Amino acid sequence: MQIAASIGRSTLNRFQILGRSTIFLFVAFFQAFLPPLRFSRFVKEVEFIGSKSFLIVFITALFTGMVLGIQGYYSLRQFGAEAVLGVMVALSIIRELGPVLCALMVTGRAGSAITAQIGIMKITDQLPALEMMAIDPIKYVISPKIIAGIISLPLLTAFFDLVGIAGGYLVGVKLLGVNEGAYIGKMVTAITFEDIYGGILKSFCFGILITWISAFIGFTAEPTTEGVSSATTNTVVVTSLSILVLDYILTSLLL
Amino acid sequence: MYGKKTEISVGIFMILGIACLVYLSVNLGGIDLFGSDSFVIDARFGSIEGLEVAASVEIAGVPVGKVKRITLEENEALVQMEIKKGTQITDDTIASIRTKGVIGDKFVKLSPGGSDDLLEDQGFLMNTESAISLEELVSKYIFKK
C-alpha cells in the first residue's frame, strides 16, 4: 500500500508540473499579444537572446563546418566521392547540426541566465512587487522572453547554416583542394526548400522550448540561494535533453 | 528603457538574420521570390527508371530547368518539366533520360531539332527516349543471343 501510494504521489506530482508548465506557456504566449504591448521589453530580450549570442554561434558554426569539411573529405575520399563534400556538409548542417547546436549554445548562454534572473527576482521579492504595482509578472517578465526566443532562434540558425557552409568551403576547397564548382554546384542542386524549411521549423520549436523551460524552472525555483543554483543547473540539463529528444521526434515527423 | 546601443545591436541582428534566411531560401532552396520566370512542358516516356523530381533538365550540358512532377498516365510516365523563360525549345526536340556521374544521377537531356516552331507554355514533346537500363541490356544480351 505504502509503495503504491508513493508511486502514485510521484506520478501525480510529475503530471501536475507538466500541466502547470503547459498552462504557464499558454498564458505567457497569449499575454504577449494583449495590450499594453511592451515593445521595449521585447527589444531588450531580443538583444539578450539574439544579438549577444551572435559571436558564440559564429564560432560554433565556423568550427563545426570546418571539422565536417575535414571528416567528410577523409571518409568520402575512400570512395573517390570528394565531389559531394559540399552536399554532405550543407545537408548535415542545414537539416540537423544548425538547429540543434545553435539551440544548445543558446541554452548554455541565455537559458541559464533566464532561470537565474527570474530566480533572483523571486528571492529579492521583485515579482510580488510587480504584482503590487498591478503589473502581471508573467506578462512583464516572461512573455517578452518567449517571443524573443521564437524570433531569435530561427535567425541565429540561418546565420549558423551559412557560416557553417562557409567553414566547410574554407577547409574543403581552399585547404584540401576539392573542386570549387563541385562543392557549390552540387550543393545548390541537392538542397531543396524542404531541407531549409525543416531546419528552420525545428529552430522555431527549440526557441519556444528553451525560453519556456528556463522561465518555468526559474519561476518555480525555491526562493533560496541553493534553490536558484540548482534551478540553473536543472535548466541546462533539462533543456539540453529536451532539445535532443524533440529533435528526434521532429525529424521523424518531418521525413 | 534601453539605450542606442541596444537598438543598434538588435537592428543589426535582425537585418543579418533575415538576410541569411532569405539568402538560404533563394539561393540554396531555389524559391522564386518574384513570381515564376519559367514555363512548363510535358513529355511522355516509356520508362523513366530512376528519374526523380527536381532532377535537372539540360540542353547541350547546360541546365535550363528541372523536373517538376512525375505522374503515371496510361501506363506511361508523364514528366512535367519547368524550363527557364527565354529557352528556345523547338517542337521536334528529343527528350531523353541519361545518367550522369559515378553515382548515377538521372537527368533529362533535350536535343533541339531544326524546326522553326517553338513550344509554348504547357507544350508537349512528341519525341522521347526512355531511360536506358543496364540490367535490361544485360538480360537481353544473355537471353536473346
Structure, described:
The complex is a heterodimer of chains A (255) and B (145). The relative contact order of chain A is 0.16. The termini of chain A are far apart. In chain A, α3 packs parallel to α6. The longest helix of chain A is centred in the middle third of the chain and has 39 residues, at 85-123. Chain A has helices spanning 2-31, 39-49, 54-77, 85-123, 126-132, 137-175, 180-190, 193-219, 225-254. Chain A has one domain. Chain A has 9 helices and no strands. With 255 residues, chain A is mainly α. Chain B has 2 domains: 1-33; 38-132, no CATH class. In chain B, 24% of the residues lie in helices and 37% in strands. The longest helix of chain B has 25 residues, at 4-28. Chain B is elongated. At the A-B interface, α2, α6, α7 and α8 of A face α1 of B.
> SSE order of chain A, as H and E?
HHHHHHHHH
Please tally the β strands of chain B and state the result.
Answer: 8
Distance between the termini of chain A: 46 Å
| Biggest sheet statistics of chain A | none
Summarize the structure.
The complex is a heterodimer of chains A (255) and B (145). By secondary structure, chain A is mostly helical.
Task: Please describe the structure with a list of short key phrases separated by commas or semicolons.
heterodimer, A: 255 residues, mainly alpha, 9 helices, elongated, B: 145 residues, alpha/beta, 2 domains, eight-stranded mixed β-sheet, 8 strands, 24% helix
